[in-house]
Amino acid sequence: MRAGGAQLDGPGGWVSGRYDRRWNATRAQLLRTRSLGGEFIILPHDLRGADGFAISRFPGDNGNWADYDAFLTRLIDDVRATGVPVQWDIWNEPNLSLFWNRPQSQYFELWRRSYQRIRAAFPNHLIVGPSMAGVPSTGGWWVQYLDFVRANNVVPDIFSWHALPSDPVANVATANSTLDARGIPHPRAYQVNEYGASNEQRWSLRG
């Protein structure tokens, strides 16, 4: 289960002063998922309000991280209070302006700060990323991300991407080769947490 209260209040979340409703929904889904034996992946960007709406401020605007630090403190405290583990998918599709309308360098700083805070608070929780729009490649955004996380010792526990559409066998091969070339371990299975583009779906209705 992967959720963070997206679309509630629209706009909603921390930036709009409506964090509580999204957190309460997320908490309920988290506890239900865990009660059924499932894994829960939390989406901080949704709880913040960056679920496709044009939010008024992004983490780190004008070099100011105070608001985002306060958001992370609240979210970390709320997750801790549940007493159950989650996986942390720090920011959805950071290579699309729909979700991250700021420079890549600002996202990288977001990733570094978030990773370090989460790891310090929950050493045994898994961190997932980058959940980019697109698939692994031998150049461009994907390898820039790999170079950054390796250089800054903020490598996710699980690498993730969105395949809309693509060849999963080729994608895994590219992920393996680009990670191996940089000496980045990847012992866990990848997460392809969005897939099935409209042209890959087939409907067969019988009357």
Automatic annotation (TrEMBL):
The keyword Calcium does not apply. This is Glycosyl hydrolases family 39 N-terminal catalytic domain-containing protein. GO terms for molecular function: hydrolase activity, acting on glycosyl bonds. Pfam families: Glyco_hydro_39 (PF01229). InterPro entries: GH, GH39_cat. Belongs to the glycosyl hydrolase 39 family. Residues 87-167 form the Glycosyl hydrolases family 39 N-terminal catalytic domain. Keywords: Glycosidase, Hydrolase.
